[in-house]
Amino acid sequence: MASLENTAAAVASISDVQSSRDIRNLAIDMVGIKGARHPIVVADEDIKEQSTIAEFDMYVDLPPDVKGTHMSRFIEILNSQDSALSLNSFKSLLEQMTAKLGATTGVIRVSFPFFARKNAPVSGAQSLMDYQVTFNGRLAPASTSVELEIVIPVTSLCPCSKEISDYGAHNQRSHVTLKVEATNSVTITQMIQVVEQEASCELFGTLKRPDEKYVTERAYENPKFVEDLVRDIAVRLNDDHGIRRFSVAAENFESIHNHSAYAVITKN
Q1: Per-residue pLDDT, 184
Q2: Given this model, what pLDDT does residue 21 score?
Q3: Cα separation, 141 vs 139, whole angstroms
Q4: In the predicted model, what is the mean pLDDT of residues 99-127?
Q5: Whose CA, among 60, 90, 157, 167, lies 20 to 30 Å from 39?
C-alpha cells in the first residue's frame, strides 16, 4: 500500500510541461500525430466487420498561450475504440478527439485497404479486390465535414486506337480517385460500383479463361478516353442529389507511352 501511495505521489509531482504557458502568443492551426498505424474494424453496407490496418493522421488546434498538446491522448483514443468504423461513426471520433484534447477544431485522416468480394463474370470464381479508402474529417465550431476518398483501379481502352487500327486497340489499367462529401448516407461499396460501371471494364482478383475472354471483349466494346471516364462518372454523381460536392480524377497508365493521361472534374 505504501508503495502505491509513493507512486501516486511521485506521479502527482511530475510537471505537466505541455499545459504550461507560452509567451510567444502564436496559435497553432494543427498539431498532433501523423502516420500512426492501428488495427480497425470497418463496417459498410452488408459488411458488418472487416478487419484491416489503418494509418491515422490526427490533429487539433492549439491556443496561443498553451505550450503543447498532449500527444499520448491521440493514441489513447485509438486504443479505446471498441466499435466498427464507418462514415456514419466517423463524426463521433472527431468529436471525441476534440473533447479529450480540449480543442475547438479537429482534423482526422484515416486511410486503409478495403476488400470487396467479387465473382468473376463468367465462371463465378470468387476473389477479393482491394481498394485504398480514406476518410477525411474536419470538425470546427461552425461546421463539420466528412469526405470519402477511394482509389479504384479499372481498365480503359482507347477509342482512337480502336478506330484507326485494322485490329486490336491499346488498353491500360487506370486509377480513378473519387472524393465525395454527401448530405445523406453514401457507402464505400456504392461508390466503387458507380466507378466500375462507367469504366471500359472493371478488374477482378481471379479470372478463368472464359472470364478473360469476357473482360477483353467487354473493354473493346466499351472504349473510353480519360475524358470520357471522368465525365461519365460525374454525370452519375450529379444525378445523386444527396451528394453535396465531389471530385473525380482519372489517371491512365498509358501502355504505348511513358507517361500517363490525366483528367479531373470537381463540383464544389
Answers
A1: 73
A2: 72
A3: 7
A4: 97
A5: 60
CB 199 within 8 A of CB 218: no
What is the pLDDT, as a whole number, of residue 251?
A: 98
Q: What is the pLDDT of residues 51-87, one digit of tens each?
A: 999 999 999 999 999 998 999 999 999 999 989 999 8
pTM of the model: 0.89
Q: Sign of the C-alpha dihedral, residues 161, 232, 217, 211? A: positive
Cell numbers at residue 266, please?
470537381
pLDDT at residue 250 tops 60: yes
C-alpha cell at 244: 453535396
Nearest in space to 201 (alpha carbons), one of 220, 219, 216: 219
Structural domain boundaries in the chain: 20-267
Q: What is the pLDDT of residues 6-38, one digit of tens each?
A: 544 544 556 565 656 777 889 999 999 999 999
User: In CATH, which of 3.10.270.10, 3.30.300.30, 3.40.47.10, 3.80.10.10 is domain 20-267?
Assistant: 3.10.270.10
Q: Write out pLDDT tens, residues 117-131.
A: 999 999 999 999 999
